[in-house]
Design brief:
metal-binding; iron; 346 residues; transmembrane; Rieske Iron-sulfur Protein; 3 domains; Rieske_2Fe-2S; oxidoreductase; disordered N terminus; four-stranded antiparallel β-sheet; alpha+beta
Length: 346
């Protein structure tokens, strides 16, 4: 045809067919170059280098053991107190130990693979997910061959040091999680709030008068006396933290049971999200919604803090409040339901 040209290059046996600027290459024109020639490593050519690499892998695994032991030691050597410096020290040294424990295993495994395990490139055809019994038996043989080539059974130093690293590495996590204590049971059903306990500003601990709460304002509140605690202060605060909000009494939707739980539009709700326990601290004054910043659970303050959006499974627990003879806001009782994540109840 007049609008086509066919050019043959016999040496490369490539056909170029031009049609409107499009070049078509024959499917069998490009040959498979194959794999590059295998290059021997120093560990393949020298027994001395092979043994040195094996020692280096073992050193990495031993370093992992040292890191795991150091992490466990640091957890107890730098206990967390009210001083933020202790939090930083505990986090720093515990993190360094865990990092060394994990990096020792990772670097050791990579160095083992790159220097001692077979590195010849191979290509294999895809097969169905399940092979015949003959193929499966062949796979077992391949696994045994891989074990033999990698030296896992033969290299006792590497094998034992790796076992040690893998055995010690989870121990810091066991201690960390074990120190969380036993199943909380009904401990989350009880907080520092009790009848007559004054509501105090967080973190100063100054009691709050109802007259000081303006319409639309929000206060972070703790039980009076919590700021002076010497022991378990953070644990008690984590359970008893409250958000105090003043609304227009006409906007409140209260059941008969809860009509006496608020005072002149002032309501108090647990600050601990019922999803996974994050602090609920974002208040939208126009919509009267409380928002948890972790997973966007949203609660309607005007309607018993019911969930209007997000993964939280139940409303925020409400703290019944009133005022004493001096006009200070006080609790009528403790929370009537457990605070915090719903999964603690399951």
């Amino acid at each position: 045809m007049s609008d086509k040209k066919l050019v043959k290059a016999s040496s490369a046996e490539v056909e170029h067919e031009y049609s409107g600027g499009l070049a078509v290459v024959a499917p069998d024109a490009v040959k498979n170059p194959g794999l590059e020639p295998h290059r021997l490593r120093m560990t393949d050519k020298s027994v001395k280098h092979e043994k040195a690499a094996a020692r280096q892998v073992s050193y990495m695994f031993f370093a992992s053991v040292v890191g795991s032991v150091f992490a466990m030691w640091a957890y107890f050597a730098f206990p967390i107190t009210e001083d933020l410096a202790t939090v930083r020290a505990n986090t720093l040294y515990l993190g360094l130990g865990l990092t060394l424990g994990l990096m020792g295993i990772g670097i050791g495994a990579v160095h083992w693979a790159k220097t001692l395990m077979p590195d010849a490139e191979v290509s294999e055809d895809r097969h169905p997910a399940r092979g015949s019994e003959e193929v499966r038996a062949k796979a077992v043989e391949i696994i045994k061959l891989a074990n033999s080539e990698s030296g896992f059974s033969r290299r006792k130093l590497i094998r034992r040091s790796m076992y040690g690293a893998l055995a010690f590495f989870p121990l810091p996590a066991v201690i960390l999680f074990g120190d969380l204590g036993p199943n909380p049971g009904d401990t989350l059903r009880h907080t520092m709030w009790k009848k007559g306990t004054r509501l105090a500003l967080d973190p100063t601990g100054v009691p709050i008068k109802a007259a000081d709460i303006t319409l639309g304002s929000v206060f972070h509140v703790i039980p009076e006396g919590l700021a002076e605690l010497k022991k378990h202060k953070l644990e008690e605060k984590a359970k008893a933290a409250v958000l105090l909000i003043r609304l227009n009494p006409a906007d409140l939707i209260e059941s008969e049971e809860r009509k006496t739980w608020s005072y002149d539009g002032i309501v108090a709700y647990s600050k601990i999200c019922t999803h996974v326990g994050c602090p609920v601290a974002l208040y939208e004054q126009l919509t009267h919604n409380l928002l948890c910043p972790c997973h966007q659970s949203t609660f309607d303050v005007t309607d018993a803090c019911k969930v209007v959006f997000g993964p939280a499974a139940r409303p925020l627990p409400q703290l019944p409040i009133t005022v004493d003879a001096e006009g200070y806001l006080i609790a009528q009782s403790d929370f009537t339901e457990p605070v915090g994540p719903s999964f603690w109840e399951r």
